[in-house]
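Handout, page 2. Input:
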Amino acid sequence: MTRLGITFEEVALAAEQITQEGEKPTIEKIRTNLGGTGSNSTIAKYFNEWKHQNAAHQDNQQPAVFSSNLVDFALKRAWDQLNQETANKIEIIQKEAQEQINTIKNTLLVTENNFNKLREDFNQLNENLNQVSAEKELVLLDLKSLREEHRLLQERYQALDEKYTEMQHVNNQHINHLIAAHNHETAQIEEKSKQQSNDHEKFISEMKTQYEAERQQHVLLVDSLKVTNQQRTNSLKALENTLKEKEIKIIALITENKFIILERDSVLAQLTQQENQLKWMMDKSLIDSKVVDKINTIPIMTNALEKLDLNMNQIMSDKFKEMNDSIKQLRELKVAVIDE
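Output:
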């Protein structure tokens, strides 16, 4: 803050002080007394006014009045100096306060930026949390759906297993019935063939012993043999038709068995796929212990089903082989009868 210009009172007080000190006041001395302030022209102006006033009232001026004016000038000068010092201190304090305010503003700006950044980070973390929660809910829904599909597949597997067991029991009964009927028919055919063979041998023996006696009846005997042969041929054809019908039934049974096996393989494939999915879920620690126990039973059920399938295939293969051997024997017997 700049100092105000000098006043008349200040110049007059300085001149009075110089005079009391026994010296003659001059512009330079007054300026030095004032602390080097004020221009020479201003000091000269006020100094001339003081000299005129001092000359006009010197004779009539009382010492008390002079002393009172001198004290007033001294007080005013001290007051002005105090105001100047106070103004300087206030200016310094204002500058320091402004610097502190600027520092606080900068700190506040940095703090606000940091707060905004933290708030953005918090919002991002909150969004990530919401996203993770949504993904968790989707995974739980997928797990629930997989459990439901697994339960349905298990129920379907149990139903198919029961159906497979029932079909196996029916197939075994049917095969046993076919084997029994085949054995019975084979025994009948063998007995009939033996009887026919015995009759034929007896007939040949009688023919040899009575050949000459029954020569005249040869034509009738030949006709009788033709009729008998025709009957045997018809009987063999009927037997062959019966065997063909049985072969057709066996083929139908084999076809039905293949469909059952294909359906069982489809269920096994679905169970295997479901087992892999559940194992993946188990590795992600999203399946409880009860579901894990159920999963562990799937390979045991699959192995049992495969073993059962092997046993059934072996039994069917053995039965079909026996029936093929029987059919082959019947055909050979047919050829032998025809040749006879």
